[in-house]
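$ ./design --mode recover --in tokens.txt
reading tokens...
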């Protein structure tokens, strides 16, 4: 049985609501999505890699993803892309493990 905590790159499981919001603010502040060709102006909040932000309500067409150039990507050792359309890091990692039969 796969545990979500194994994919929790941001360590949110142990955070209080206040700490969670603080970390989310940090992610959003450093997020490069607004400079990405796939991004649709006016979408809010950004920082789609972070758990619970959710996918974009406005982005429907994947062009390119610049997540791999983002400081957050490196700091938290993220491994996926297109978080705006495909879901967060923990969500995609979990789906990949389930698909692999774990
Ligand atoms: S990794 Fe991508 S979604 Fe996450 S903060 Fe950076 S640019 Fe935004
Ligand atoms: S998650 Fe990736 S594809 Fe989506 S807007 Fe951010 S950088 Fe672009």
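writing sequence...
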């Amino acid at each position: 049985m796969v545990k979500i905590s194994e994919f929790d790159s941001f360590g949110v499981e142990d955070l209080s609501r206040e700490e969670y919001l603080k970390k989310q603010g940090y992610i959003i502040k450093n997020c490069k999505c607004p400079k990405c060709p796939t991004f649709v102006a006016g979408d809010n909040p950004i920082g789609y890699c972070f758990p619970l932000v959710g996918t974009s309500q406005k982005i429907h067409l994947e062009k390119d993803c610049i997540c791999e150039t983002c400081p957050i990507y490196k700091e938290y050792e993220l491994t996926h892309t297109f978080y705006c359309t495909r879901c967060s890091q923990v969500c995609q990692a979990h789906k990949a493990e389930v698909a692999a039969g774990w």
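exit 0
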